[in-house]
Write a structure and sequence with these properties.
It is built from 15 helices and 13 strands. Helix content is 46%, strand content 16%.
Amino acid sequence: MAKPVVILAAGGTGGHIFPALSVGEVLIKAGWKPVFMTDARGRHMIPDEYSCVTISAASPFAASLRMRLWRLSRLGLGFMMSALTILIRRPKAVIGFGGYPAVAPVLAARGFRLPVMLHEQNASMGRANQFLAKRAKILATSWPVTKGIAQDKSAQIVVTGTPVRAAFHQIGQDGYNPPQENGPVRLLIVGGSLGASIFGDTVPEAISRLPDALKKRLKLVHQVRAEQTEAVRERYQNNGIDAVITPFIKDMATEMRQAHLVICRAGASSVAELAAAGRPALLVPYPNAMDDHQTANAKVIHDIGGGWLTPEVEMSAGSLAGKIAALTADPAKLTIAATNVLQLAKPEAAHELAELVMTMTERRAAS
């Protein structure tokens, strides 16, 4: 008997892809077959053993009419590819995880009268999900209060949290061990799934300004853009700092387990992984994120005392060096933040989303 198919449509960044993968893992264990749909960027994050369809997508917003028409044509092509995939794969439902690559599959699904569920990872609803919300039966959110949900909403609202892999929740269950006196201080520095140039410029400069005694204790794992790796590596070597430099971290759970302090963006997946793992962080929201949703994400952690919000405009090398030095010198403060951020963990999020979509399809079949 063929396994029932569910399409998981997600934008091309880790904030959309990783939650989709987490739900996909649960669906596989439940006997379903997930088919992922994303753009070329997101395709590189989908493991080869999973079924994935790459579609054309783009934001329709652009300064010139010519560019808007070009982007709309890409969305139109994505719609045709999505419709063809639905005809061939015969899915029972579609789950949209935000981002413009999710728009065409959801619209195509509604054209075929398939049930649709959306998941919003951020504390401020993305534009793609705002546009699609009226077409969904269920809107799952990560936060109890999510900005941007229309008052005339027709979808059922369910707060599930953002799905992350079980490995991160295991880290949180195992607890947090702060740096010991004169022992190693482990920093994990991540500039988002696509990298961030400021993390390759300002952060190494800040590290170089730390006291020599602290620099000797540092153990760094630093994700930077591919074109910055050699320059950053040389910078750390010249300062006698033990650092691993990489453009992509394959096993984020392992690196987060070892970290005493994380310096990172405030994308939805990053925030959810920090909460699950119980790791204190300096959060630097991407300032150009749509509707400034990363600041909203970071503020949730900051307000609960689980980390520290650091706007990029305030992230000078000198101020960042001061914050790193102060925090690593205060293990009790790090431990309190690690405990506080665990309150935001949602270990059952992936299972809840999988159950919701399976229940939704069962009700459709019964009716």
